[in-house]
Amino acid sequence: MRHWSRSYYFLLKWNVLRFRSVLPLHITVQTLLSAGVVLGYAFLIPHLTPANALYLSTGGMTISLVMVGMVMLPSTLSYRKETGLLEFQRSLPVPRMSMMAADATMWIVVAIPGLVVAMLLAVLRFHLRLSPSPMVIPALALVVVGSVSVGYTISYLVKPVLVNLITNVIIVVTMMFAPINFPAERLPDWLAAIHRFLPFEYMAQAIRETVNVPRAGVSALPFVVMTIWAVLGLTVATRALTRRQ
After folding, report:
1. Nearest CA-CA partner of 230 in 212, 209, 203, 211
2. How far apart are CA 226 and CA 224, in angstroms?
3. Number of folded domains in the chain?
4. pTM for this entry
5. Least confident of 90-104, 163-177, 204-218
6. Does residue 223 carry a pLDDT above 90?
């Protein structure tokens, strides 16, 4: 355990030092993205109800975490893969999970200001009265783990030249065609059926219901589905990290 902790600490320190010049820019972009989803999408809805405002506010949080784990992380890892830095890191005598944990921690820090801004806008701009649950912490943690593990899987199993294409598809899907900022009932039946097997709808639902608990309580289904995705993603990513070239 001590070896894992020391490895995690030094890998995290290495990441922060490598990205120290661009981290403020990443944080700014993620914060603007969260604010843009909450405020910008609101212009498309002429008569914004509290339910719509809740979808937009928690949708901004969800999209921010998905962008960090499934878009920014794979792009960064793809660059490291092309330059040989990733193979150098794999040759180090450190636990593979500590590498993933160090990367995830840095990108979580990047996403935190956006999460805070989304909630502040929900309260100040839309005057929402939120009733958060203690389950919001596990919900956010599962979204992060699921997003990061999928991001690692993309970066390791896909050629670097295709990573940007896949991450662009993820951006389009999450911003426009995933039931994150709106209910799944608004989608065509065939697209809604596809999303029952994807994690986006469940990520948004878990955050939405734990930030403002509905009368029926917090549903367990999103946590089950996100756990399955997180376990699958971590398993594939770990095997990819440990396999020999």
Report:
1. 203
2. 6
3. 1
4. 0.88
5. 90-104
6. yes
